[in-house]
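One thing: could you explain this record?
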Amino acid sequence: MTERAPSIAVRLGLAVALVLAVGGLGAALAALAYGREAAREAYDRLLAGAAFDIARSVSVSAGAVAVDIPVSAFELLALAPEDRVVYRVIDREGATVTGYDLVPPPPRASQGAEVAFYGAEFGGEPVRLAAVRRRFAERAYSGEVAVVVGHTLRARSTLAWDIARKAMWLAAAGGLCLVVLTAAAVRSALGPLRRVEAALAGRRPEDLSPLDVETPREIRATVGAINGFMARLARRMDAMQAYIADAAHQLRTPVAALSAQAELAAEEADPERLRALAARIRGCAAGLGRLTDQLLNQALVMHRADAVPREELDLRMVAIRVAEASDHDLASTPEDLRLDLPEDRVSVEGDALSLIEATKNLVNNALRYGVPPVTITVRAPGAIDVTDRGAGLPEATWEQAGQRFARSEANAQGGAGIGLAIVRAVAEAHGGRMVFSRPARGGFRATLDLGAAALGDGAKGGPQ
C-alpha cells in the first residue's frame, strides 16, 4: 500500500513554522541586542547626569578640593534600585577626595572628552562607570578634578531582557496571526481544487466532456492536463465503440452466409452439389478468416495510436518488411511485387508496426484487386506509394474510402474495406493522410503520406 503523502496544507504549515522559527530566533536576538543598547543609553545618561551634578558641587577651599555631594545625584542613581552605586572624586595628584579608593580612574585616552564611559570590576562584580573632568585654574589650586560615578549592571540586564521579552511576545502574537492568515489563505487557495474535485465527482461515468471550472492561472495547466486526458479517453472510447459497431456490421453478413451454406450442405444429398457447397463454405471461411485478421489488426492499430511512443525509423526498412510479410499467395510470380527504394535514408517519427500493417493492407489490396506488377516506392520526405496497373478505385469514391462501412466497386466482391480504414487511421495518427492518384503512365497509386512525421529536410510532396 502506498504511503499517504502529506497534504499541501501540512507542507505549507511546516514551511511557515520553519520560517517563523528562524524569524523568531532572529527577532529575539535583535530584540535582545536592541534592549541592551537601549538600557545602556538610558543608564549611561543617569550616570552622566549624576557625574555632572557632583562635578558642579566640587570647589577649592584654601588650596584643597572640597566636595558637597548633592542629593539630586543620588536621586538619579537611585533610579536603578537593584544596583550597587559607587563613586570617587580624584584630585590632580590621583588621590581620592571622597568615595571608594578601589574605583578605577578613567583611562588616559578619555582626556578631553566631556564625559567618558568605561567598564571595570568592583568587588568582583562588573560595573559601568562615567567620568567627568573639571579643570581649576586658581592661585591656590590649578589642575583637573575627576568625578567617577558608576553602578552594577543588574538594572541594565533586567531592562534589556524586559524589552526583549516584550518584543518576543509581540513577535509571537504576529506569528500566530500569520499562521491564522496562512491557514485561511491556503484554504482559499485550495478552493479551486475542491471545485475541480466536485466537478469530477459529480459527473456521470459516460461524461468525458472538458471541465468548465473557473480556476486561477496556476491551476489551469492541471485542468488542461485533465481535459487532455479525458479527450484521449473519449477518443479511445469512441474508437472502441466504433470498432465494436464495425465488427458487428462486418461479421454479420459473412457469418450469416456461412451458416446458410452449412444448412444447405446439411440437407444436400447430391455429391456434386455437396462438393460445390463445400467449396463455397471453404471460400466463406477463408474470407471470414481474412476479415477476422483485419479486424484484429484494426484493433491493434487503434490501441497503438495513443499508447505506443513514436520512434525514429527508416521508411525503406518498413517497405522491405512489408514486402517480406505480404500475402505471397496473391502473387503468381516473384515479379508481381517490386521494391523501388532510394539510396538515402528516409527518416520519419512513427510506430513501425502500425506503418507496416497499413502498407501491407495497401499491398494486399493491390495484389488482390489490382493488376500486377505491384510496386512499393519510398519517397522523401516521408511517403510510401503502392502502385499497380489496374483501374483502382473510381475517383468518386476516393473521399469516402477508409470511412466506416464504406464499400467500393473494387472490393464489392468479398472485400470489406477494413484494410483502407486501417491505412487511413494510421495516416491520421501520424499527422498524415491517405492519398489516391493515377500516374501519368497509367494504373492506380495509393499513397501513405507522412509529411508531418518526416524528419528529413525535403519539402512535403504529394503523389506525382
User: Anything to note?
Assistant: The first helix runs from residue 8 to 56. Confidence is low (pLDDT under 50) at residues 407-416, 457-464.
